[in-house]
Amino acid sequence: MHNISDQDRANVLVQALPYIQKWAGKTIVVKYGGNAMISPELKEAVMSDIVLLQLIGINVVLVHGGGPEISGMLNKIGKESRFVNGLRVTDAETIDIVQMVLAGKVNKSLVQLLEQHSGKAIGLCGLDGRMIMAEKKASGIDLGYVGEITEVHTEVIENATKNGYIPIISTIAGGYNGDVYNINADLAAARIAAEMKAAKLILMTDIKGLLRDKEDENTLIPVVNVSEVPSLKREGIISGGMIPKIDCCVEAVRRGVKRAHIIDGRIPHSILIEMFSDEGIGTMFY
């Protein structure tokens, strides 16, 4: 960064100006997970990006996962992680661990990290202010305490952003009888973005975006209209682990979020590249 000239630095800022004007005052929801959450340098980049966005007047809501940390803790107590179709089978003992790890350890360490980057952060989970209400997910196999979102209330998130805090949200949800449910973080981010009428939903992943040919990173599909998704599924271009992520983007757009993005969280400052360049990064759904 130190080797760019003052002239280049000025040009960068001038080119960013129309985007800064476009996004100021808007809300964006970022789902943070994957390698960007594990690698220390990527973590630092994400935190500085978010602080920068907040300083120019964008309301950032950060929704995070924590699968590896949950698996690590279950290992420590000698419990095996079981997955069915990508969903963690969550018995009564596991949901306690999920709540401890996500709402406790992961959430608060992200709050602290953001504060170290001079951001003002507050940690929330789906139980706060009845933010995410859920009931047991119906599925052929009993997944235990895996929830289906029934309601999203964003008042507590809006209070935080109004007061200059960046809300960092872990996605456990409350049931109507006092149960706690594990919720997929991509889905929760999509529903929160819709409820907040966010201008953008950004899902950070460990892939470049949607590829026409999975083996070839040069076949990135930069823009997808949600009406094209069913045929992309039929052709097998959207398959496997991409299906739920893309369904989240479609859901968000259908519920009124202007743009949803799957971006490559392995690239430092991918959020800034998405927000402040013509090309953007990853795949955009509209």
Task: List its salient traits.
41% helix, two-stranded antiparallel sheet, single chain, 10 helices, alpha/beta, 286 residues
Strand tally is: 14
User: Roughly how much helix do the residues carry, as a percent range?
Assistant: 40-55%
Order of helices and strands: HEHHEHEEHEEEHEEEHEEHHEHE
* Structural class by helix and strand composition: alpha/beta
Distance between the termini: 34 Å
Largest sheet: 8 strands, mixed
Strand order of the largest sheet: 5-8-2-1-11-13-14-12
Specify the overall morphology.
globular
Low-confidence stretches: none
Task: Give Rg in angstroms.
Answer: 19 Å
Strand percentage lies at 15-25%
pLDDT averaged over residues: 91
Q: How many helices? A: 10
Q: Could you give a quick summary of the protein structure above?
A:
The protein has 286 residues and is α/β, with parallel strands linked by helices. Helices cover 41% and strands 21% of the residues.
Structural description of this entry:
- With 286 residues, this protein is α/β, with parallel strands linked by helices.
- 41% of the residues lie in helices and 21% in strands.
- The protein has ten helices and 14 strands.
- It has helices at residues 6-23, 35-38, 40-55, 67-76, 92-116, 155-162, 185-195, 229-234, 242-254, 270-276; strands at residues 27-32, 59-64, 83-84, 87-88, 121-125, 132-136, 147-152, 166-170, 172-174, 180-182, 200-205, 223-224, 259-264, 283-285.
- The strands form four sheets. Strands 5-8-2-1-11-13-14-12 form an eight-stranded mixed sheet, with helices on both faces. Strands 3-4 form a two-stranded antiparallel sheet. It has a two-stranded antiparallel sheet with strand order 6-7.
- Helix 7 packs parallel to helix 9.
- It is globular and about 60 Å long.
